[in-house]
Amino acid sequence: MIAASIADFRELARRRLPHFLFEYIDGGSYSETTLRRNVEDLRDIAPRQRVLRDVSALDLSTELFGQRLSLPVILGPVGLAGMNARRGECQAVRAAEAAGVPFTLSTVSACGLDEVAAAATKPFWFQLYMTRDRGFMRELLAEAREVGCNALVFTVDMPVPGSRYRDYHSGLAGAPGIKGAIRRTWQGAMKPGWAWDVGVMGRPHGLGNVMRKLEGRTGIEDFFAWMRNNFDSSIAWADLDFIRSEWRGPLIIKGLLDAEDSVEAANLGADGIIVSNHGGRQLDGVPSTARALPAIADAVGERLTVLADGGVRSGLDVVRLLALGAKGVLLGRPWVFALAAQGQKGVEHMLRLIEAEMRVAMTLTGVTSIADIDRSILVPEAGQPRAARP
Ligand code: GLV
């Protein structure tokens, strides 16, 4: 199948990946209500079709945190992403560079900071969680600085992981020891393309940045145990001082859904925030990003850079989030599906699809630059879903 859409990449990923890996990316928490809402609320937003406005010269570039981007799109942090293709994050960072957009490396990536830095030719972004071990955080921040990361994404919506039923059903979670390992190995063996590319040729399979803490324990359950035991639920706004003092570059706080919290982030001097519900993977039932974003953009859009993620399945969706107040949009599942399907080439292809669809959306809403995209390109009447109303 030639992928014409993100949905096609999802299907290609489903065919190629062991069941437990596909379910980990694809799934959300509990009944997956927020996961669905992210997609549906965004899809419900009606763009305002305008014609005959000379839109022959489109400029999709933008500037974020002093960096010039070809598109207002960022490959967002995704844990375990590198398990979906051979040394996956190294392939993804190269695809992002080719497209002129930032790549964000997750703390819990397969390839560590040093390996991704060796594969990259330009700076990339790094994502960090608050862990109990502040020394470990300090080490990671020092390493991120050393390898030249040019933005820090600090995730605050995961003091505890949300329960994802699919991970229990697939054998990724809650199946410790040999039983779980046998199930996952069997699922891997059922997918020979992945088994060769990643299972055999893509070793080592640990989490590059966390490995040093696990002292030889390398089973996937060791990593999940580490995550459960080390994420810090005592984190409070005052702890951001610790991050600020260790990190001088752009600081972007990820996982805000509430306008009052976003004002706190601005008061603390964050350079940016990411309006996000963690792709519907944390507190199920919270509002979609599309619904939360306008009030947040109104509250702090003049004080810091508002980014958003969640539910994006096309370039039109990127334009919708920009219209609702985001200055840039992070992609999660779309790039991981594309990576799983076709490696670096797949991610490059997916980004070309996003760009092409953004061009159609901009052309038919009558705007020629990213700065011109605002709520005026959405249908204003009462029929518009609440997500699009201020
Ligand atoms: C980690 O960030 C996850 O959502 O699993």
From TrEMBL:
Domain (FMN hydroxy acid dehydrogenase) ranges: 1-383
GO terms assigned for molecular function: FMN binding; L-lactate dehydrogenase (NAD+) activity
InterPro entries named among the record's database cross-references: Aldolase_TIM, Alpha-hydoxy_acid_DH_FMN, FMN-dep_DH, FMN_HAD, FMN_hydac_DH_AS, LldD
The keyword Cell inner membrane appears for this protein: no
Cofactor list: FMN
Positions with a binding annotation for glyoxylate: Y24, Y129, R164, H278, R281
Sequence positions that bind FMN: 77-79, 106, 127, 155, 254, 276, 309-313, 332-333
GO process annotations (BP): aerobic respiration; lactate metabolic process
Record key words, sorted: Cell membrane, Flavoprotein, FMN, Membrane, Oxidoreductase
CC terms in the record's Gene Ontology section: plasma membrane
Keyword Nuclease attributed: no
Gene3D superfamilies given in the database record: Aldolase class I
SUPFAM superfamilies tied to this protein: FMN-linked oxidoreductases
Active site as annotated: H278
Family named by the database record: Belongs to the FMN-dependent alpha-hydroxy acid dehydrogenase family.
Protein name: Alpha-hydroxy-acid oxidizing enzyme
Organism field: Erythrobacter neustonensis
Primary gene name: lldD
